[in-house]
Amino acid sequence: MIIFNQKVNQVFCKSISRSIIVISTWLMMLTIQNVHAEETTSPIEDKDSGYGKLKIAWGFGYGFDWRKSNLIKNTSNQKTSGIDNKYGLIASFQYTLNPSVFIELPIIISYLAPSTRYFNSYHNNSGDGYNIDVSILGNYYLIVKNGFSFLPKAGLGYTFGYMWQTSTRLVIDKNINDTSSVIQSSFFIRLGAEVGYFKHHIGIFFNYYFLTNEFSSIKMRTAQTSANAAIQPPVTIDSSNTYLDSFGTNIYYMYRF
Predict the structure, then answer these.
(1) pLDDT per residue over 48-69, tens digit each?
(2) Where is the signal peptide (predicted)?
């Protein structure tokens, strides 16, 4: 009887040992799977967010556009093209479709420093302005590894800009302000790429403005009849223009929550 009990105990201990080995192996495999999942999970996911959740990102950036213009092109000192510089703040709304893909709607509001093509001939200054840029982009996480990510993106957008310049002219005993202004709107195709480390991202956009409309009210100098003649008021030229090909680039920093 004692020998039988010893054999039973041995069999029981072996069974327990085998069970512990099986459970330990299963737990180790599960841990490895979880670590691998954490390394390959998109940075836009976390334990508190699921697919379809709307999130927001904030950032800032710099951009420049090469623009051409046919406004009042018949004047001898009027340039027909130039580079506009933009310094802006970004708010981007993103919607997750799956672990690797999300759609975003970035809105960029910028201070716009136009080239001399509009206002320099009369005001002797390039002017000031603002610009609003809205686009819808598809994003794909091509590489995700240890917190680093790389994602290309593409989409369409619309931009609206307003530029102006004011000069003061003294007439007898009072000052008169002469203001020139230009409204510019464009539709564009946007391609870009972004590199991220956890929630910090740096990216670049390439923009092709395939359709641009301009509406302007620009002051121009008038010819003096003689050296002693009184200074003549400027002539206001109202015009509009449509052109097809212009290009731009944006670089930016974004914090994706």
Answers:
(1) 445 668 899 999 999 999 998 7
(2) 1-37
d(CA 63, CA 38): 35
- Shared domain for 23 and 120, answered yes or no, is no
Give the count of domains, the chain: 2
Residue 14 buriedness (CB in 10 A; 0-12 / 13-18 / 19+): exposed
Q: Are residues 107 and 186 in the same domain?
A: yes
pTM for the structure as a whole: 0.76
* CATH number of the domain within which 120 lies: 2.40.160.20
Long-range contacts formed by 164-168: CB under 8 A, 24+ apart: 164/127, 164/128, 164/129, 165/118, 165/119, 165/123, 165/125, 165/126, 165/127, 165/128, 166/123, 167/122, 167/123, 167/124, 167/125, 167/219
Element (H, E) at 59: strand 54-68
Retrieve residue 61's tokens. 């950036």
112 and 216 in a single domain? The answer is: yes
d(CA 20, CA 22): 5
CB atoms within 10 A of CB 175: 8
72/19 same-domain check: no
Domain identity same for 145 and 33: no
Q: What is the spatial distance between Cα 130 and Cα 80, in angstroms, rounded to a whole number?
A: 20
173 and 92 co-located in one domain? yes
pLDDT in tens, 113-171: 999 888 888 888 889 999 999 999 999 999 999 999 999 999 999 999 999 999 888 88
Domain containing 195 equals: 47-256
